[in-house]
Amino acid sequence: MKRPLASAASLVAASMLAISVAEAADQQEVTVWSWFHQPTMEKSIEAFEAAHPGIDVKFTYYNYSPEYITALKAASASGSLPDVIGLQPGSLTQQYREDLAPVNALAAKEWGDDWAEKIFPVNRKQMLMGNPAGDANAYMVPQESQVLAIWYNTKIFADLGLSVPTTYGELKAAANALTEGGYIPMFQGAADGWQNENVFLMLANQFSPGITDRAQTGEVPWTSPELVEAMTAWKALFDDGIFQKGALGAHAYPTGAQLLAQGRVGMMALGSWWMQESKFPPPLSEFVDGMAGFDFFYLPPVREGNPPSPPVGGIDIGYGLTKNGADNPAAWTFLAELTNGVGLQQALNALNDLPAVPGYQPEGDITDHTRALYDRFMADLPKAENQRFASPAVAEALDNGLAGVAAGSLDPEAALAQVQAATDKALAAN
């Protein structure tokens, strides 16, 4: 019995199916994990896939702590890490160094032999933080930078007749006026080690720029007079009412950030990433709409004769190519575009933070005020002091010391002696 002839339509359908199957077979997949803001990452991926139609990026978002840290640990133990992972410099990168592929040769091919020299100095230093002696490999590429500062609500300051404080006395007076006016003076999420570290670094670099870097490498002791003074000044921020009551139990996110956005906080130590609030969807408060109600300053000198805090910052987030990803050429293509290409541009358009390399500007609907803030941060980034710690044990010891001093259970010298002990142990192990 003869088979019936296939219709033209069925032949076309079969042909289209064959083409789609072939295209699917040619499609390369890249897996990525990070805590990076999901809507922004989705825009970066969309732009990347438009430029590289043969590559399909699968992104998994995690909250940083504890979900992301837990997921990395489990995947590392089972050998199932994705192709590309989000990293912070120093301790987190070093924790997974054995799972990561050096990117030096790939980066040199992509951007030239001098690729590292094009990265801002503080970022360049942080890329290698914690590497064993003699290991000049880069295990992560920075995507975004940040500069830490004190953000303040300009409308509240104007209503209360306050100016940007330039001395510690003026800072204390502003905090008192804010409290009397019914506002939180300077919100500190002192339950968060990272925010405490940031403020302490602002203080320490007033007394001696770069001193915490030198302490990490054993060049100066953590118990040096300058660091003891910085720790004493840290305690004074609580005792003098500059931080809010109950700060030790408070979190910067979501609590502090929400209160700042709502106009209930006068000041808060955050970073250049706060500009992204102006790009979040409605409803926005009058203060964050175009950043109209915000500006920033650097912490004024806490001791007469000191300079104000210098810019402190460095890598906000970077990305590493896992050894799994090293076997997937498309993984490096994505990492390169994410850190210095079409993916990075999308992140900057969302004002997620500052770039890790010069030559980029945010594009799109950005107010003149926000652009001026961006330009000021970019001018300060090349001279920023290091924000990061090479050893997780040293960072943890400092976190515990800051909490103990703030609570009154440790004096500054004892707290810093504990940091020194952790440093000695970390240096001996390296």
UniProtKB/TrEMBL annotation:
InterPro entries attached to this UniProt entry: Bact_solute-bd_prot1, SBP
Q: What is the annotated signal peptide range for this record?
A: 1-24
Q: What is its main location?
A: periplasm
**Gene3D superfamilies attached to this UniProt entry:** Periplasmic binding protein-like II
The UniProt keyword set, sorted, is: Signal, Transport
SUPFAM superfamilies reported in the protein's UniProt record: Periplasmic binding protein-like II
**Listed name of the protein:** Raffinose/stachyose/melibiose transport system substrate-binding protein
